[in-house]
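Module 6 notes. Inverse folding takes a fixed backbone as the condition and produces residue identities as the prediction. Think of it as a translation problem where the source language is geometry and the target language is the twenty amino acids. Below is one complete input and output pair. Work through it position by position during the lab.
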């Protein structure tokens, strides 16, 4: 990599992440290496780009002025790298994907298997997180693209893939099993296990919209922990249908009387910034 481009990328990534340490981790450099590259830029240009203090890093006025140009150069370099990869075809490469557990369990193994039949030398790195983490990884460049709930919170490109129905999950012999469907209002004062992490929950919004207050006994972001607790009659829950495939837990499900769906899709920054391998993988998603 051209050394000046390397410095521009270090500068841009440090500003985006607000930390030398985080930028070093993403770019596979030492913290001192990132700091040294930015110092070199400051000396070459004769300006101060970042103010360093105990509170962290802050862009100077000069830094704000030059950041858009450095960012444009860094992005064009990435586009150039992607074009060179295309010329070299798909012999090798790495696809980095942000995802949540149900997609990682029920979709990605088959997707990757089919893709590697055609491109066996492409490697994969999967990062599991919640919706907010996945979007932030995309923005930070930690992953190439991610599976998440739509619409995205941030300004990202998105492709819709699937409407995932939310189902009521019940222990065996629960009274609600006599119902064909369960109304949201039926959940009032029921012992309930909530799929939630830091307030990011479709179900929280559903309950609030219907002014329903179940007895929330547990909150977790782990689908399988919820299934295990429902099986032991510690409460009932609502989970997406996708996670309820091929489970070993002894639970039952019922649809909601007024069905609701989680919109699942794939997110990325710009198509031009995707590697050839990532673009090819996403194109195959459309026929998956």
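Target side of the pair, the amino acids:
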């Amino acid at each position: 990599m051209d050394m000046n481009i390397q410095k521009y990328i270090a500068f841009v990534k440090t500003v985006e992440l607000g930390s030398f340490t985080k930028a070093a981790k993403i770019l596979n450099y030492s913290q001192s290496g990132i700091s040294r590259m930015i110092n070199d830029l400051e000396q070459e240009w004769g300006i101060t780009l970042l103010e360093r203090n105990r509170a962290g890093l802050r862009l100077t006025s000069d830094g704000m002025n030059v950041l858009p140009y450095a960012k444009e150069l860094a992005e064009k370099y990435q586009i150039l790298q992607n074009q060179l990869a295309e010329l070299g075809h798909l012999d090798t490469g790495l696809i980095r994907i942000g995802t949540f557990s149900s997609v990682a369990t029920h979709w990605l193994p088959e997707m990757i298997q089919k893709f590697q039949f055609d491109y066996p030398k492409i490697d994969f790195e999967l990062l599991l997180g919640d919706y907010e983490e996945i979007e932030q990884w995309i923005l930070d460049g930690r992953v190439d693209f991610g599976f998440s709930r739509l619409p995205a919170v941030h300004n990202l490109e998105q492709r819709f893939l699937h409407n995932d129905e939310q189902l009521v999950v019940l222990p065996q012999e629960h009274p609600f099993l006599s119902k064909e469907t369960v109304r949201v209002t039926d959940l009032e004062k029921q012992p309930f296990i909530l799929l939630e992490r830091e307030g990011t929950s479709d179900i929280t919004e559903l309950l609030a919209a219907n002014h329903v207050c179940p007895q929330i006994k547990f909150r977790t972001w782990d689908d399988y922990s919820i299934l295990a607790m429902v099986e032991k009659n510690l409460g009932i829950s609502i989970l997406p249908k996708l996670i309820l495939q091929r489970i070993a837990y002894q639970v039952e499900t019922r649809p909601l009387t007024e069905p609701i769906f989680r919109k699942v899709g794939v997110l990325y920054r710009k198509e031009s910034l995707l590697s050839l391998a990532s673009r090819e993988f996403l194109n195959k998603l459309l026929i998956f």
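Reference fact for the lab report: The chain has a mean pLDDT of 89.
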